[in-house]
Each structure stands twice: as structure tokens, then as C-alpha cells.
Amino acid sequence: MTVDELLAAWAALAGDEDVQWATAHPGPSVASVAARLAAVPRPFLDDGVSVPALAGDVLGGSAAALVAQRHSGVPAVRLGASIGLWLVASEEQLGAFDPPLAYGASATGAGSAALAVDALALRVAPVADPLDWIADDDRREEAVRTFLLWSGFLPAGEDVEAARAALAARDSLARNRVLAEGYAEHRHRAEIARRLADARAREAAARYSTE
Known about the structure:
This is Phosphohydrolase. Keywords: Hydrolase. The chain has about 210 residues and is mainly alpha-helical. It has eleven helices and two strands. The chain has helices at about 5-15, 15-25, 30-40, 50-60, 75-95, 100-110, 115-125, 130-135, 135-150, 160-170, 175-210; strands spanning about 25, 155. Helix 4 packs parallel to helix 5 (about 75-95).
């Protein structure tokens, strides 16, 4: 798959990013998550790792929500998803984040571990090599901030404005004008599709209530 196709897959999956920011809850620090990411165990970086199998082990029943596994034949997607799954698995192996990742979804209803893994695999990995997340401070922070956002969190000590600005300053996609414009169009189309689906659902509910 092309980078554009992967970004389109993410745009179709992700909800409204403005809503995601508005509903995010104070969460773990960037430093605490970055330390875990930098220490990803070698088996999670293996070229032969199976994302569906790994997702099943780490996420259990939530694995069905992991869209990245459909595209795990793409090396960057596979590696990005695997690193994201390590961040989730690390809570059991090294101790929970403060607050735990599960709190983001329960407190806001707007994030989840599976969605955060998908964000790394489909939104970040196609434009920023996942190996750079380990070796480069800015790329690691970009990945961590993206992971926190789609887990339902703001980084500890930051408000929405500061967190958005910090992520925007490190956004690899924004540096590629053609890809950024294409992604904006994918998001626009996805939002229209969501609105149409909502309208059809409301219309169906109204018909049912009058029968």
C-alpha cells in the first residue's frame, strides 16, 4: 500500500481530531512513555513478528478493533503497531503508567489502547520510520504524543493548547505538503461520510419510533 492509502485508512478510522483533543483527560508524562518506547524489547522489533498474534496476546478481545493488522504486510505498519503494542504490554511487565492507559478510555470514552496503536501504525509510521522513534528524540516524542492523544490523554502538566502545539511542531506529515494536503482531503471525506451515516441512523430511528 502507498503512504497515501495508509493515511486514508487512518482518516476513515479516526474520529474528529478536534473532539479527541477536547475530550482528552490528563494522563501520563511524555517522559514516562518515551522511556518505555526507547526500551522496546528486541522481539517486538523482529521483522517476522505477527501483528494479529501479538495484538491478540496484548489486547485480547480488543484485537478485533486493531485496523493496523489488516495492513501489517507493510513493514512500517507492522513495526509501528508492534511498538505501540509494546507500550500497552509494558504496563503488565514494568508497571502501569500514571494514570493507567485504561483510564483514558474509561474517563473520556474517546480513546483506547487499540486506537492508539492504530494511530502509531497508520498515522505516524508511514511518514516517520518507527526505528527513528527509538533513535531520535523528536521522532520519539512525536510518536509518544500521538499515542497519548488517541489513548484519550493529554500529557501530564499540559493543557490542550500546549499539547496541540507541541505535537504540531513535531508532526512529520506536516513537512510534506503533498501528503498533508492529501490527508486533509481524506479527513474531509471521512467526516462527510460520518455525518451521512449519523443522519441515516437518526432517520431510521425516527421511522422506527413512529411505526
